[in-house]
Amino acid sequence: MKTIVLTGGGTAGHVTPNIALIPELLKDGWDIKYIGTKSGIEKELISKEGIEYFSVSSGKLRRYVSKENITDIFKVTKGVAEARAIIKKIKPDIVFSKGGFVAVPVVLGAKLNNIPVIIHESDITPGLANKIAMPFAKKVCTTFPETVKYIKGGKGVNTGTPIREGLFKGDRQKGLEICGFNNSKPVVMMMGGSLGAVKINNCLRGCLDEILKNFQLVHICGKGNLDKTKMQLAGYKQFEYVSGELPHIFAAADIVVSRAGSNSISEFLALKKPALLIPLSASASRGDQILNAKSFEKQGFAVVLEEEKMSEKSLAEGIRSLYADRNSIRANMDKSGQTNGVENVMNIIREYAPKNE
């Protein structure tokens, strides 16, 4: 049996594309192992999939000066040794990395065992972990066509992002029932990423009365961010986090308000959900969400509202304007031909897996 090691972690965005690949890998007859950190979100998410999980040490790689950089170098070095030993024991045919800091020791551990590595880069410009790992990869899959030019050696290939198959199986009526909604008004879905988006949450709640005149709003606000004073408000449903309900809520949503994380916006495109994107500001990130959002706006898949320009008035107006333009945005999404990167990524894995079975 062929064996593959999946890796990636730190945020849900570095794990969910791996989860999307699991059903296809199993269908293809692969034995799947996962290497992540001891306490990262990846361990929790992968354990639900019934995949054998191995832990390694990993430090955070920073672009700025910090005394923790010194201690984290030792953690990464320790992680490389641990990953090398685990991979030597597993003897996989290939390693697929979704990025995040844990990916660096795993990719290096694979290289030390002469195991081919495939990497997936979600953002337009590669993150630091993937920049370090890319020289050791056979191929680098990308979400955005613009990314290929940043990858040296002809390794870049635009595959799109693997999307979980279950997301396409939502039922609109079930989604309305989960939220306590009806068919009288369109549904706006606000999601703030795996940790929520406090600034957007607060702004949204400040203009709730205005939004609820014309819309019903399902608000996925992040852990610890529920507003208990608004639990009984008609047409407004809050969740800290959703899992099994997500496909149905997506099916019920007419439009989406969100940050501009690559995996999330890839899901919006695959599901044909017009989006109002509010990317993390450059002061709070390396600016990748701004580039992601601009790419989607340029392709006609979304409208962008900069966080610095966000107010209760501009947010409410942005939602109304997006809904008014929803049909033309959906038409652009239909024409794009971009739906789901699972099969494209699987073809790359098949291409580079040793043909000795």
- CATH class categorisation of the largest domain: Alpha Beta
How many domains, as an integer? 2
Distance between the termini: 7 Å
Query: What spatial form do the alpha-carbon principal axes imply?
Result: elongated
Give an account of the 3D structure:
- The model has no long low-confidence stretch (mean pLDDT 91).
- 49% of the residues are buried.
- 40% of the residues lie in helices and 16% in strands.
- The protein has two domains: 173 residues, 3-Layer(aba) Sandwich (Rossmann fold); 168 residues, 3-Layer(aba) Sandwich (Rossmann fold).
- With 357 residues, it is an alpha/beta fold.
- It has 14 helices and 13 strands.
- It is elongated.
- α1 crosses α14.
- The chain has a seven-stranded parallel β-sheet, with helices on both faces.
- The longest helix has 23 residues.
Q: Short description, anyone?
A:
By secondary structure, the chain is an alpha/beta fold. It has helices spanning 16-27, 41-47, 68-90, 103-112, 128-133, 172-179, 198-206, 208-212, 246-252, 262-271, 288-298, 312-324, 326-336, 342-352; strands at residues 2-7, 30-36, 52-55, 94-97, 117-121, 139-142, 156-158, 187-191, 216-220, 236-239, 255-258, 275-277, 302-304.
How would you describe this structure in keywords?
single chain; about 350 residues; alpha/beta; Rossmann fold; seven-stranded parallel sheet; 14 helices; 13 strands; about 40% helix; elongated
